[in-house]
Design goal:
two-stranded antiparallel sheet; oxidoreductase activity; 6 strands; 13 helices
Length: about 325
């Protein structure tokens, strides 16, 4: 009976009914995912060790970014310092060995450098010292006496990027936010994109889409909406990676665009490094207004989802980078 009725109905009506059913199924699936996320994410009042560490890493990274600016901005990061102080206290409550926690140690290292730079410049940092108890301040003072780990890269060390083993290239790649004045031509970017075309995707459907922007006015407007590039000069080139939802076939693939787009983006970052170009991935986790403004500015259709931006330029002779400590295998490997 069901098949008989389907044969009697116009194909466009059947398609519309199917899309309505898919929409309701998606709403149900996303409702479950929303509940899982709402329970698990690192909210300001979180209590688990991983949540607290994640927030702490976030705010420490804000302090670290300041060290990579061309001109250091004294006094910057007061809100981050306030949150770091609160989170260290919360970490101590859930981790009996918190003083040996790598996230805490990295925080103290960054705070020590922050203190060192301000003290060397004769700046008042009472707003910082009053945030921390005596023992933490003592650790920060001790850290300020040691040399902060190298946060500079030399272009001379990257000139053979196209010939070194992949294991070396992986260690060399860092997010670079400041670039030389040399323009980036489209041909250079296309070379890196071409090297990334072998990136795997679901059933080889290849949903990744790339847009290249070199107009400084467009780049400035786009990154103003994005909001995460403050403190640096605009990059000479900006790439937007999206995923085309038309490549997918069912609600089970609703998130596949982000997976395939992310895989392609990582391949592209390594390809840019191989081609001798400096790059920095920038998130596109937009709210509705920012997404609408970005789509309008960059002519992105609704059938594509945002994956990330990549800022691109030529290396300077030396470049400052964020230290960005990485976890070891013992933290990542789950069995």
């Amino acid at each position: 009976m069901k098949e008989t009725i389907k044969k009697m109905l116009p194909s466009k009506l059947i398609e519309r009914i199917q899309r309505i059913k898919t929409y309701h199924s998606l709403c149900s699936a996303y409702k479950k995912e929303a509940k899982r996320f709402a329970i698990s994410y690192a909210a300001p009042a979180c209590t688990s060790k991983t949540q607290i560490e994640s927030l702490l890493i976030f705010y420490v990274h804000q302090i670290e970014k300041g060290f990579s600016f061309d001109a250091y901005q004294y006094g910057r990061g007061k809100n981050a310092l306030h949150n770091i102080a609160l989170l260290i206290k919360e970490l101590a409550a859930v981790d009996v060995d918190w003083r040996n926690n790598i996230v805490y140690k990295d925080a103290v290292l960054a705070l020590g450098e922050y203190r060192h730079r301000h003290m060397a410049a004769g700046r008042d940092i009472s707003y910082m010292t009053t945030l921390f108890p005596q023992d933490i301040n003592a650790a920060i003072i001790e850290s300020s006496k040691t040399k902060y780990p190298n946060i500079s890269l030399s272009y001379a060390d990257k000139k053979d990027n196209d010939t070194v083993p992949f294991s070396v290239l992986v260690e060399r790649r860092h997010a670079i936010r400041s670039y030389s004045d040399k323009p980036v031509c489209r041909k250079e970017l296309e070379q890196a994109i071409r090297l990334s075309l072998r990136t795997p995707s679901v059933c080889n459907r290849q949903p990744a889409r790339i847009r290249i922007f070199t107009d400084i006015d467009i780049i400035t407007q786009a990154l103003k909406i994005q909001g995460g590039f403050g403190g640096y000069n605009m990059p000479p080139a900006l790439m937007l990676i999206t995923a085309d939802l038309q490549a997918f076939m069912g609600i089970n693939e609703r998130n596949e665009g982000y997976v395939d787009g992310g895989l392609f983006s990582m391949s592209l970052l390594y390809s840019l490094e191989t081609c001798g170009l400096a790059a920095c991935p920038l998130n596109t986790m937009f709210n509705d207004l920012a997404a609408t403004e970005t789509r309008r500015l960059l002519h992105v259709p609704d059938n594509e989802v945002f994956v990330m931006y990549i800022a691109v330029g030529h290396f300077r002779e030396t470049s400052r980078i964020c230290r960005s400590q990485r976890f070891g295998l013992d933290r990542i490997l789950m069995n």
